[in-house]
Design goal:
Chain lengths: 323, 273
């Protein structure tokens, strides 16, 4: 008998690999069909109140920011957020009242965000960025857990849902992390064809694993490419189409963050966001940049403007590796 | 009158950490603030081929400096001219199999066994008095790298008997084999703590923090007065010299020309020969 030596004490969704397989069998279309829809339609159709939401990368770099803003605009509620590698994603979603639970890898920044936790509005469970990413890997493998050689011996372990067991092979203690299969994932790609074959260039958190592990997957992309283009260089495909439920055409979808190789960050905008978040005035940001516009197109035209967008493109002088 | 050199407490910590860096080792650095600036100072000032990784999966970049605010990972400038682009699990596995020698991190609090906090101050877990962003990659860095260097200010509320929350492991309770019993790899653990006034190591048998070096602008008394626990003290204390003009030049003109990080902290003025 394998012996459980120690256990974390906090809540997590019990892994259910067979349930997840059934979901994939029933819900993920194998057909090569056009999946392109708008941000609004994608969020209406695939993000439900109470969902567990995973965001690949972050608001400052290659984040699926047009989708994140649409989630806020549609005032989704009671989300359980995978808070890994977040710069402002949690600030915005929690500030907008969309989130009730937060799994902690890292979430920055801003006083308003931290206050929501201090006042008990948002419940947290402690992990780490790597622990969250390994939980998603287990989810992507169709496995119930992932063994890791970190997290043990800390209050983070105690306040997670991990277990320490005696490994039946070596006889030594090892930490097991429960698999994570989010209800919905949003991912921003450099390129994607209409079927959902997506290309992500550069370093990343774990876009492929997130897509494979999640029940519903929305991919937004800077550019919709011809499927012939996909077939000409299949080695560039990061995520195969059958994991993707919706494709959104979202040029400058990562604004105000960077899209490596395509455009640099809107530093002024990010500093404004940081100052408002620190002053506990995130509502001002939400009104100005999200609620008061209806679409990503309007946001780009009326809140950013062509001159600035072209400047962000010019600022991105590094192209090597991003194609 | 001897000439003087003026620098901030942050610059002092970054310089001292950069001086420990050796090109024969690989480094995993926390993505923001002093840890990444230390490794960048070492790379730009002394070892152009120095290899470090960050948790977005970049391996051995020669980044294009300076970074835009917060853009220390994933952004093209931070990943420029790297040896490899991997992802978060990728670099974590590199460390997990033993290929990453030294982790460099900062923290909110550290205890005498090197366990440290990045999560919360005061209150309870459910209702913390002050909540912070969490481990990020710190837990895996402190667990998996062979050695861990911490950078933090020399103030009493940071050197505590017990951290309000132990986010990442040091020597845990200090007993032999405590890390292995918690599932962490054998032979890993805390190595140095660098502050604006001192450098600490750890006693080999008790695993307690041990004062190794005192800055020329401070004293043992001042350091002890700024700690909530009493560290062991090395028989022969080394002296930390102030940053050199060369180090300050590289730091202020290349690594952090806007002074966003290095300009923070208090100013120190020291006479030099």
């Amino acid at each position: 008998m394998v012996q459980v030596l120690d256990s974390g004490t906090r809540e997590f969704r019990p892994p259910d690999p067979d349930g997840f397989r059934e979901w994939v069998r029933e819900n993920k279309s194998r057909e090569l069909k056009n999946k392109v829809i708008s941000e609004r339609e994608a969020v209406e159709r695939y993000v439900a109140d109470g969902d567990y939401l995973c965001i690949e990368c972050c608001y400052t770099n290659r984040g699926p920011n047009s989708l994140l803003r649409e989630i806020v605009r549609q005032r989704k509620k009671d989300l359980w957020l995978a808070g890994r590698f977040m710069y402002f994603d949690a600030t915005i979603l929690i500030g907008a009242g969309c989130v009730s639970k937060l799994d902690v890898g890292y979430f920055g920044l801003g006083r308003s965000l931290h206050k929501a936790i201090e006042t008990g509005k948002v419940k947290t469970v402690e992990w780490s960025n790597g622990a969250m990413t390994m939980r998603l890997l287990a989810g992507a493998m169709g496995a119930p857990f992932a063994p890791v050689r970190f997290l043990g011996g800390t209050d983070a372990f105690r306040n997670s849902g991990a277990k320490l067991i005696e490994d039946p092979f070596t006889g030594k203690p090892v930490v097991l992390l429960p698999a994570l299969n989010p209800d919905v994932a949003i991912i921003h790609a450099h390129q994607c064809d209409v079927y959902g074959n997506a290309r992500v260039f550069g370093t990343s958190v774990s876009p492929k694993d997130v897509a494979m592990a999640s029940r519903k997957v929305i991919v937004s992309a800077e550019e919709i490419i011809d499927a012939e283009e996909t077939r000409r260089n299949p080695g560039l495909t990061t995520i195969p189409y059958y994991f993707v439920d919706a494709v959104v055409d979202a040029p400058f979808g990562s604004h105000p963050g960077t899209m490596p190789g395509l455009y640099g960050s809107d530093t002024e905008h990010i500093i404004e966001l940081m100052m408002l978040a620190n002053a506990d005035k995130i509502e001002t940001y939400l009104d100005k940049y999200i609620y008061s516009v209806e679409t990503q197109q309007q946001y780009l035209e009326q809140r950013v403007g062509l001159a600035k967008l072209l400047q962000f493109k010019r600022n991105e002088v590094i192209k090597e590796g991003y194609r | 009158m001897s000439p003087e050199i003026a620098f901030t407490t942050t610059e002092a910590m970054i310089c001292q950490t950069a001086r420990l860096v050796e090109p024969k080792y690989t480094y995993w650095v926390g993505g923001g603030g002093e840890p990444i600036l230390s490794i960048l100072l070492a790379q730009k000032h002394r070892y152009p081929d120095l290899v470090y990784v960050t948790e977005d999966g970049v391996v051995g970049p020669n980044p294009m400096l300076p970074f835009e605010p917060i853009m220390t990972m994933v952004a093209s400038r931070s990943c420029y001219r790297a040896l490899a682009w991997d992802n978060m699990n990728g670099v974590q596995w590199h460390a997990s199999v033993g290929a990453i020698d030294v982790g460099i991190l900062n923290c909110l609090q550290v205890d005498q066994y090197g366990n440290f906090n990045s999560s919360l101050i005061g209150g309870t877990y459910e209702r913390p008095a002050r909540r912070f962003g969490g481990a990020g990659g710190a837990n895996e860095i402190a667990s998996l790298c062979w050695r861990t260097i911490l950078i933090t200010d020399q103030v009493k509320r940071k050197f505590v008997k017990k951290t309000d929350f132990a986010t990442s492991p040091g020597f845990i309770d200090g007993t032999p084999g405590a890390r292995e019993r918690a599932g962490l790899p054998k032979g890993t653990g805390p190595y140095r703590v660098i502050t604006d006034k001192a450098m600490f190591g750890y006693d080999e048998s008790t695993h307690r923090m041990k004062l190794l070096a005192v800055a020329r602008w401070s004293s043992v008394e001042e350091i002890l007065a700024n700690m909530d626990f009493e560290p062991m003290i090395a028989e022969r204390l080394e002296t930390i010299e102030p940053p050199t003009e060369d180090e300050l030049l590289v730091m202020r003109t290349q690594v952090d020309p806007g002074g966003r990080t290095v300009g923070s902290g208090e100013w120190i003025t020291v006479e030099v020969d």
